[in-house]
Amino acid sequence: MEPDTLIGRTIGPYQVLEKIGQGGMAEVYKAFHPALRRYVAIKLLGRFLQSDPSFAQRFQREAQAAAALRHPNIIQVFDFGNVNGGHYLVMEYVEGTDLRAEIDRRQREGRPFTPDEVLNLLGQVADALDYAHRRGIVHRDVKPANILLTADGQAILT
């Protein structure tokens, strides 16, 4: 399925609403599950990776491992699938911003994070990583853009 044509279409039971992110390997969309009345985030593996069977298998293994994690600072994985040759992962939708965008915004406004705020955020991320590592899962891409911040200050590792 071509990512550019996804808005307004469905992936499984999910109605794709808008594109909310893009990385080197995947695009992320906000979607809605009408039967459950729940917003979700769908990560669609990039086209150039879809044709690599070993990468698709790794994507599936990582989805299965992530789905087993239950921690308040780790994004919850709900579903995994393949539609028209495209692999996708369905996660909880988090209302907020990523840490990279928040750092940039605060720099523009001249009000960086306080030391207490930094310690709080790093503590949450460290707890999440420790939890995952104790279960044999290594994140491999910890960076500010992969940490979501909720309005109440919760850090969620994606």
Topology:
Blueprint: E1 10-11, E2 14-22, E3 26-33, E4 38-45, H1 47-50, H2 53-67, E5 77-83, E6 86-92, E7 97-98, H3 99-109, H4 115-134, E8 147-149, E9 155-157
Antiparallel strand pairs: 1-2, 2-3, 3-4, 4-6, 5-6, 7-8, 8-9
Provide an overview of this structure.
The chain is an alpha+beta fold and 158 residues long. The chain has helices at 47-50, 53-67, 99-109, 115-134; strands spanning 10-11, 14-22, 26-33, 38-45, 77-83, 86-92, 97-98, 147-149, 155-157. The chain contains four helices and nine strands; from the N terminus they run E-E-E-E-H-H-E-E-E-H-H-E-E. Strand 8 and strand 9 (155-157) form a beta hairpin.
Task: Sum this structure up briefly.
With 158 residues, the protein is of the alpha+beta class. The protein has helices at residues 47-50, 53-67, 99-109, 115-134; strands at residues 10-11, 14-22, 26-33, 38-45, 77-83, 86-92, 97-98, 147-149, 155-157. It folds into 2 domains: 3-92, 2-Layer Sandwich (Phosphorylase Kinase, domain 1), CATH 3.30.200.20; 97-157, Transferase(Phosphotransferase), domain 1.
